[in-house]
Amino acid sequence: MARVVVIGAGVVGLSTAVNIQRQSPACHVTIVAEDIIDGTTSVGAGAIFRPTADYLPGVDKERAMKWIRDGWDHFSSIALSAHAGPAGVAVTPSFMLSRTEIKDPLYKDVVFTFHELSKDEMRRLGFNQHFNFGYLVTTIVITTKIYLAWLLKGFQENGGKIEKKLVSDINEFQGRCDVLVNCSALGSRELFGDKNIYPNRGQLLRVKAPWINYSIYTDNDAYIIPNQDLVAVGGCREDKNSDKSINEMDSKGIIERCCKICPSLKGAEVSSTWVGLRPIRSPLRIEKEVIRDKATKLTVVHNYGHCSDGIALSWGTALEAASIVKGCLQSQSKL
Ligand SMILES: Cc1cc2nc3c(=O)[nH]c(=O)nc-3n(C[C@H](O)[C@H](O)[C@H](O)COP(=O)(O)OP(=O)(O)OC[C@H]3O[C@@H](n4cnc5c(N)ncnc54)[C@H](O)[C@@H]3O)c2cc1C
Questions:
Q1: Most CB contacts within 10 A, which of 81, 233, 255, 276?
Q2: What are the C-alpha distances in Å from 193 to residues 189, 198, 214, 289?
Q3: What domains, with CATH codes, occur in the chain?
Q4: Ligand 1 atom, smallest distance to 165 CA
C-alpha cells in the first residue's frame, strides 16, 4: 500500500491529509507533528473568509482564484448544511471598513453578498468617524478550534494515523514513505532550509460578548469576529517578530481601537489572550521537490507559507497539493 507522511497538524496539514485520503483512497496517510491542533497558529485565528491579493504576493491571479473558489465551495457548503455547528463554520454578516476604497477584492464575486455602504449608512452605523468606505459582506466565519477537531476526526475515521513528535531531520522518512508532504509552515525554515519564510506576530483577545453576531474587519489593526462561543478581538501585525509572549500594551491598544468602532464591546469580560505567528512567504509554496542524498532520494510535496489567509486558503491549496501527491504516487506505480 502507498504510504504518505504529512508533517504538520495545523489547518493546512489536516486539510491536505484529508484531501490525499479522498484523492488517493488506496493510500495510508500518517500525520507527524509537534503540535496537534493545540499550539498551532491555526487554532487561535479569528477566522474570517476574506482572502485578498495583499497576502498572496507572487501568486498568479488565476491560480489564487481557484484556491479561493474551491475554499468557498467547501466552507459555504458546510455552512449551509447540518454540519455547520459540529464543524464550527457559520454564515456571518461582516462590515469591511477602510480608509481607502477597496477595489474589487478577490473575494468580491465569491462570497454570498457584497454591497458598498452609502455615506448615510456609514453615518447611521457610526463608522464614518474613522473610515471613509464600508462594505457589507455576507461571508463565513470559522471557529478554528472546532473546525480543526472536526477535520482530525474525519481523518482518523478514514484510517489516518497521528504521531506527535518534533521532526529534526527529514532523512528519518527515507524508506518510511513514498511521498513526504511538508505542511510545517514556519518549521520549513529549519527543516528545509527555506530562508524565504518568516513570522508575522499577531495578538488577539477572546471576550464574552454574545450580543455581537456580526464581524467588523478594518484596515487599521482592528477586527471583531464572533466565534461559536466567544468573540475574537484583534489585532496587530509585526513582521519578523517571533515573540509568543502576551504584550499588555498590545491588548490595551486592541481594546481601545475595537471599542471605538464597536462601543457595545466596552466592559466585555476578557476570557483569554493569544499570540500566533503567521507564516509569511512570497509566494506561498505548493510544488514537488526531489531531495537527493548520495544513493537515496526523497519525494517531497510542499504546501506552506499561507500568510494571513491560511484558514480561507487551506482547502483550495490542499486540493492542489493532494493532486500533486497523487501524480507522484502514480508515477511511482504505487496507485
Ligand atoms: C492573529 C491571527 C489571526 C488570523 N486570522 C485569520 C483569518 O481571519 N482568516 C484566515 O484565513 N487566516 C487567518 N490567520 C492566518 C492563519 O492562521 C494561518 O495562515 C494558518 O493558520 C497557517 O496554517 P498552517 O497549518 O500552515 O500552520 P500552523 O497552524 O502553524 O501549523 C504548522 C504545523 O507544523 C508543525 N511543525 C512545524 N515544524 C515542525 C517540526 N519540525 N516537526 C514537527 N512538526 C512541525 C506544527 O507543530 C504544526 O502542527 C490568522 C493568523 C493570526 C496569527
A1: 233
A2: 5, 12, 42, 13
A3: 2-331 (3.40.50.720)
A4: 43
